[in-house]
Amino acid sequence: MTTIVPTSEEDPALSVVRFTSELSWSDAGPAVAEQQVSRLCVEAQECMVMNRWLDLTSLMLTSADIVFSNSKVSEKDLECIFTVICNLVTKSGIPDEELEMAKLICAKIIQQPTDKPVLRLKILFNLYNLLDNVYCRFYVYMKALNLAMSGKVTEHIIPSCKKIDSFLKEWNLEVQDQRELFLCVANALKDSKSSAKDSFKFLTRYLATFSGEDAYKMGEAKDEAARTIIEFVKAPDMFQCDLLDMPAVAQLEKDAKYALVYQLLKIFLTQRLDAYLEFQAVNSALLKSYGLVHEDCITKMRLISLVDLASHESGRIPYTLIKDTLRINDDEVESWVVRALTSKLIACKMDQMNQVVLVSSCTERVFGRQQWQVLRTKLGTWRDNIANVINTIQANKITEDSSQAVQGLMIR
């Protein structure tokens, strides 16, 4: 086992310089090695005396590559070395210099993301916790996200993604940095089955940042807007979204490359199964190119069509209408209603005697201006009803009090 920091009065940073330089020059022969080690140690001491922390960081990182590749250095020692190097950021006190030091350290750590990725990720998080500058923290976190993806260890960073909202309050980012963050988090989460919905959520947050942008800027979001639509269509358990209201998505309607993708989104959010089948008959190759499975799309559109029936048929849906709309057999109607129930898309009862479904509530596929107006009307009706009940109770109480007063006079 190699000993990194000797138990002496020597400064830890100087000990690291001595150790890494000895490791780097070990093959050059004792005379050359001793000369080079002495030179580097003197240079490091000068940096420390003159508070040149950025130069010292650069000096210490020069030999850091050999530390990762040398089999004689354990992971524990590696972590120890970089803990000492990372700690230099606490000595600067100058925000711009602190950021430059963080950039140097990050650049060295992420050079070989597939070699000991978990350890490299741990070092970056150690660096993050040592930083005072909030933008530095954002910068390091972004590097950690990219390292986790490149090193295929995203499971180690997914828990931190749940704290993004609190991070945003701390970092106070500009819009461009927010975009970069949301997109990077979405990419980090996309390969995790348990985080698919979170990935979609961050994609939509990314697209939402383009509100009010000019056409050129908006164009940056086209590919991701199309990707978000496809992710929504693919997801077997997502039936509601606000993508149609987003300018970054709306721009696809007349786009030469993505117009059909936008049309597909409109079908899934505003139309029924028959519209999808007509679209698929003409664009089957397009759907396959995006990895969409026709049978899965039919299943989702049947559930969506049932929800649409529930919201437009005054709470009573005949079995025959469900059969015709979903293009199923008579004996399949109730099983599809049960599927919609278990997916919490509708709340209803089945009247088998009269062959109707009695709907009490249903999920809205989109929640735009029209839905807000309906909600406003309902709330107004409830308010008026409650006011009528209160007035009735008060009127009855006045009548009751008057009767009791009259009875009291008669007793006297």
Automatic annotation (TrEMBL):
It holds the Pfam family PCI. Its main location: cytoplasm. Component of the eukaryotic translation initiation factor 3 (eIF-3) complex, which is involved in protein synthesis of a specialized repertoire of mRNAs and, together with other initiation factors, stimulates binding of mRNA and methionyl-tRNAi to the 40S ribosome. The eIF-3 complex specifically targets and initiates translation of a subset of mRNAs involved in cell proliferation. The gene is LOC105114508. Residues 195-364 form the PCI domain. GO terms for molecular function: translation initiation factor activity. It comes from Populus euphratica (Euphrates poplar). SMART domains: PINT. It is found in: Cytoplasm. GO terms for cellular component: eukaryotic 43S preinitiation complex; eukaryotic 48S preinitiation complex; eukaryotic translation initiation factor 3 complex, eIF3m. PROSITE patterns: PCI. Component of the eukaryotic translation initiation factor 3 (eIF-3) complex. Keywords: Cytoplasm, Initiation factor, Protein biosynthesis. InterPro entries: COPS7/eIF3m (IPR045237), eIF3m (IPR027528), eIF3m_C_helix (IPR040750), PCI_dom (IPR000717). It comes from the Eukaryota. This is Eukaryotic translation initiation factor 3 subunit M. One of its GO terms (biological process) is formation of cytoplasmic translation initiation complex. Belongs to the eIF-3 subunit M family. Transmembrane segments: none annotated.
